[in-house]
């Protein structure tokens, strides 16, 4: 008996070992699974920023520009961001640390006002533009629009002789983003192929999509073509010029690149619409197809058909062409449609109409869901993107607040990349020629940075309920969470001191006429709409 049990156990042992299965852990059975029917055929590869971004920039730019130019949703996405982030231009508000610079509050404020007026002399004039077509605030609009559409935008610091009405030599030249490119056919070493985005300069540096990089990755120069690549209207031979990124003696930038990096070792920007290009194109195609269908179905069409045999029909209609099988059954010019009209048809001829009903009940909800996904991906709420505020006050305000966070962030990036560097270069010239006094400006980098400190304010957030927003502003200043100067700039884009001077003048004028028009009051907790109205 004992021997039989032992043999039986020996037979079962291999079966037990075969049933043991080792399972992977962590993401191996989840997002990284190689056995899942859903994921096993999905094996994307994350490569370098050069392969993922630079190698695809030409396609991304072209498709992005097409969506902005030719589709309503693409144009709305760019225009909404431009209008709210930049609008008619970001305005300079100097914020110098006057105590550190040896000034009192009054002197510091007076310096800031004088500098603002002097800067506006240059910025509000078209002479600040090398082409003399736009002032500095218009240039901001163009540079920001280009940055969103192409992924980055470039501007050069140029100089021209001062004139009677323009004492400054500084000029700004905006460039198309694709003019900054690799110097092809200039004798530099490169490899052929779709992914040719890097070349080798004679000095040993690398050139990646027009950006020259040193061995340690530092940007040292930009390569600019004299024409937009593949421009069918420009027959000039393409030539490139090398512009050093920074001055050798001063370290001041010679050229500005407005760009927001999302990857390490990234040197060119990605178009704003890049993540949603495919969905945008599908929405555009679907909308066009539905529109075409609606137009076709809007036509009222009648068809004359024959119910009799061909021999009988020939006898009925003597004008019928026996030799042409494609000849019409009747002469349609003999019949017409009009109110109260009666038409007699030949025997054996019938009239059939095409159903003109156009039932598209699924179009709006389907497209709406797709646009909501697009809006979420680019950081703009659906209501703001389509200017459709049909929900409650609370929901509409929440959408505006979310959009405003996106706009403020991009405004900060843009001001840091474009407005502030331009202001610093202008201020250096203003101090050098004696139009602005700034002791120690060229002696100490810390002092120079202090003189250059400034804020940039632009369009204000749309206000759904002015009373509630003003109450909130008053409470922030009351409890020291903000200043009246900042609140005036952010809510109305105005200068507090100018407002107070104007109010004082108006009060004096009202008193002079013996009128009593009341004092401004903040009615905390009163007024406004109900939350869900």
Structure, described:
- The chain has 533 residues and is an alpha+beta fold.
- The chain contains 15 helices and 13 strands.
- It has helices at residues 2-18, 49-52, 57-70, 72-85, 105-123, 136-150, 277-298, 310-316, 363-378, 382-385, 393-432, 445-452, 466-478, 484-492, 496-512; strands spanning 91-94, 153-159, 170-175, 189-190, 198-200, 206-208, 211-213, 219-225, 240-244, 255-258, 302-306, 349-353, 454-457.
- Strands 4-5-6-7-8-9 form a six-stranded antiparallel β-sheet, with no helix packed on it.
- Helix 3 crosses helix 4 (72-85).
- The chain starts with a helix and ends in a 21-residue tail after the last helix.
- Mean pLDDT is 83; it is low at 522-533.
What are the low-pLDDT stretches, counting only 5+ consecutive residues below 50? Answer: 522-533
The residue-averaged pLDDT reads 83
Describe the biggest sheet?
6 strands, antiparallel
Structural class: alpha+beta
| Largest beta sheet: strand ordering | 4-5-6-7-8-9
Distance between the termini: 89 Å
> Given the C-alpha coordinates, what overall shape results?
globular
| Cα-atom radius of gyration | 35 Å
- Helicity level: 40-55%
| Tally of alpha and pi helices | 15
Reading the helices and strands in chain order gives HHHHEHHEEEEEEEEEHEHEHHHHEHHH
